[in-house]
Predict the structure.
Amino acid sequence: MPGTDLSSYDDHALAAHLATVAGEQLLDLRVRGVAESWEPSQLKDTGDRVAHELIVGLLAGARPGDAVLSEEGRDDLVRLESERVWIVDPLDGTREYGEPPREDWAVHVALWERDPADPAGGGDLTVGAVAQPALEETFSTAAPRMSPPAAGGRRPRLVVSRSRPPAVTDVVAAALDADLLPMGSAGAKVMAVVRGVADAYVHAGGQYEWDSAAPVAVARAAGLHTSRIDGSALRYNQADVYLPDLVVCRPELADRVLTALAGA
């Protein structure tokens, strides 16, 4: 809100606030775009830019000493020497955003912090927020939402890309005897597991750090398993931000999912 001193917010509350207000602005922009008959490309491009400028501008005021890695910004490699790096996807699921009234798009804000106890100078995600504006919800580490128990009496649900699901999803679906649940953005897919709408999400078709950082932070806080498809740790704030694959699932399914992937 105007005049709010965001520097007084803790990191978790700040991430949730940034994702939420950017999402609200994107909703307003979408209404305007529909009213003015914008082309989908204009709506998507404008949404990316407006949300990026809002989040980066608010971060500059609230955390002026921190580095930022945003999908829509220039990658300043000073972040590799920084103690704190915000990893942002201002509009995840631009295709879905450009197709009103679709709901499966999101805003991602995460924080990576260096571990002073790591002699190699590594670090990890400590904060995350994923806003799903069309659902009027923001999931964040400010108030972790524990994933509900698996629903009894139904087959597991594997959430997949609605446009280009990777071949490995067929292997996992067979191993779990799972139903497929097509959906848009990566953030929406991971939040589907957090919400209990789905039980697993497996991706191997290519992503970048900003696609998964905030969703992974939120999923971890919800008690879910997160890893690469070979079971190794997801690493962020790397020189090469390409992070092509991801597994998020209920912990009791992790061994079956990773075993299936190992044999694929």
Remarks:
- Helices lie at 11-35, 40-62, 94-97, 168-176, 186-195, 209-221, 254-262.
- Strands lie at 67-70, 84-92, 106-114, 123-132, 137-140, 157-161, 179-183, 200-203, 225-227, 246-249.
- The domain at 157-262 is CATH 3.40.190.80 (D-Maltodextrin-Binding Protein; domain 2).
- The chain has a mean pLDDT of 93.
